[in-house]
Amino acid sequence: MSDAFLSIKDVNKTFGSVHAVDGVSLDIHENEFFALLGASGSGKTTLLRMLAGFEDLSGGDVVLEGASIAALPPNRRPVNLMFQSYALFPHMTVAQNIAYGLEMDRLPRAEITSRVAEILEVIQLGHLAKRKPDQLSGGQKQRVALARALVKRPKVLLLDEPLGALDKKLRSEMQLELKRLQHEFGITFIVVTHDQEEALVMADRIAIMRDGGLLQVGTPQDIYEAPETRFAADFIGVMNFLPVTAGDQGFVARDGSVILADRVNGTGGAIAAVRPERLVLGDRGQNTLRGTVTNTAYHGLDLLLHITTRLSDTPVIARMTAEMADHLRPEMGQEITLSWSAKDTHIFPA
Amino acid sequence: MNGFLMSTDRRPMLLMTPALLWLFGLMVVPCLLILVLAFFRRGIYGGIEYTWTFENIALVFDPLYFQIFMKSAGIAGLSAAIACVLGYAAAYAIAAMPRRHQPLLLFFAVLPFWSNYLVRTYAWIVLLNREGLIVNLARWIGYEGELPSMLYTEQAVVIGLVYNYLPFVILSCYAPLSRLSPEIAEASRDLGGSAWTTFRRVTLPMTVPGIATGFVFVFVLSIGNFVTPALLGGGQFQMIGNLVYAQFLTANDWPFGAALSMVLIAVMLGLLMGQAVVAERASGGKRAPDG
Ligand SMILES: Nc1ncnc2c1ncn2[C@@H]1O[C@H](COP(=O)(O)OP(=O)(O)OP(=O)(O)O)[C@@H](O)[C@H]1O
Ligand SMILES: [Mg+2]
After folding, report:
1. Which structural domain, as residue segments, surrounds residue B254?
2. What total number of domains does chain A contain?
3. What is the pLDDT of residues B90-122, one digit of tens each?
4. Which chain A residue lies closest to B192 (C-alpha atoms)?
5. Residues A75 and A220 in one domain
6. Among the listed residues B213, B236, B222, B235, the one whose alpha carbon sits nearest the alpha carbon of residue B283
7. pTM of this structure
8. Most Cβ neighbours (<10 Å): which of A233, B163, B191, B225?
9. Does A7 touch chain B (CB under 8 A)?
10. A82 found inside a domain
């Protein structure tokens, strides 16, 4: 993989005794929308700050288009970072904030003016050009911070939780907006998020981080449909886990039934997993379970049934579309049979 | 952040009352008395003759006295400028240290404040004297030439003022520097700014209010100061403070002393207002509703 656009090679970062980033290797393609997904404290910000040049590497190398950038100071890297806190300059207007990076490049005045006007148009904030950051709403600040980084047309744009401070509706709007901008500008994006849904919607590829290391890298479909570890399966979306014991006849569930599974990860399988939307009503698949409806959770788009079974301590969750729910009208206490097929069943070690 | 002051709760006002009463009784009222005094005539044998006149005010702008005013302003301005450069540098260095060491460093910076003003000023006499420490040091290093007497000069007064008021500037500059989010400076580096450009275009403008406060503080305290000019200037020249002092205590011309004080107060108020404007600008203006 020597033709990778951005190559992160066995990068390490320690703060005293804390191993914040632990041997991360990653190849990122040109024009890729890449998401770093992980729980709080997993090292996402630290990795991004190393790419931007704000943290020295404790080990490893970062290679951009064939040349190492690990020793360059932040102002000499063709990489820009959009800070989690936005870090807008409070004493400058919106237009001055955006122009700042271009002034640092010593571009002619006329070009700076036209590029600032152009990007203000793109983020639809032309009418606020003369405002100071304190006079903007959270969503507006976020767009100014994005414009300020984007206007420099960096080779790589790093975004640390760019949508973290926005409400849910604005978030989903901005997710699509970010994708559109990335496409329009043709810039490689690396976005940090701890919102798995956001990563699935936006990214071409996702890396799941845990304790400073990479757990799995792949397309959203890969990660969702074929998680390689129990952690990844649990972290992305909703997953039902059923304890099993591996025996001669296969994987035996608590009630003695054998669970057929196509997706076996590792050895010494101890837990089976299946997604709620893969469970169907009735006895129509290779694996079956019976239980009692103990709760229903209405989400508008769908209805989640919580079903208490003998197969696990926690209720199994099954998803019904609004259409199905209208027909069946599941009630609390109702006995129910669910089935699913082997191709949707994952097995993970303990 | 300012919700506390903007709330409709009136209890904060109650807490301010004692301080306000104190200020009113012991600051505002005497100032008003001085103000009125400046418009009366001086009695022939001292004392005050209660007839209205603008003569005292006019006399302040008489070249003889106005020149003292300008000289004082020059010395105060120079002292304030030097104190700001030294103080900002010190505050910057302290703010760049690991957080847990900062309180101790600040404590050392303001330590001289804990000793008496007169003692500190007398110490400088010892240092600057013809046979003082500084001269001896120069001799010891091997300097043989003629040394100008440093004591009882304008420079001595400036040195004394800078030394005495430096801690104020360190504190007033440290406050905004320590509040500065490191990410703001990082954003500037990220956008292509060198360390120096980042300082000049981001750090400095954002902390100018601290410098302005420090400058005004030193200037105001220096221009009215009469102890340092008397001790370190050795009566070689008068500053406005000495002039006021003389009017009240030796010349017995209270109305003229009052007029001098009034003009001084007016200058200070003007400066304080200028400083408020600077602070307002740097903070990025008031929050306006979205339009
Ligand atoms: N300057 C530092 N000094 C010491 N430890 C640090 C420093 N910066 C980060 N860490 C530690 O490194 C680990 C990773 O932190 P990091 O900020 O990269 O996490 P994150 O994935 O961005 O988390 P979040 O989602 O909460 O932003 C944490 O354990 C953190 O405490
Ligand atoms: Mg973070």
Report:
1. 55-116+154-282
2. 2
3. 999 999 999 999 999 999 988 888 888 888 888
4. A75
5. yes
6. B213
7. 0.82
8. B191
9. no
10. yes
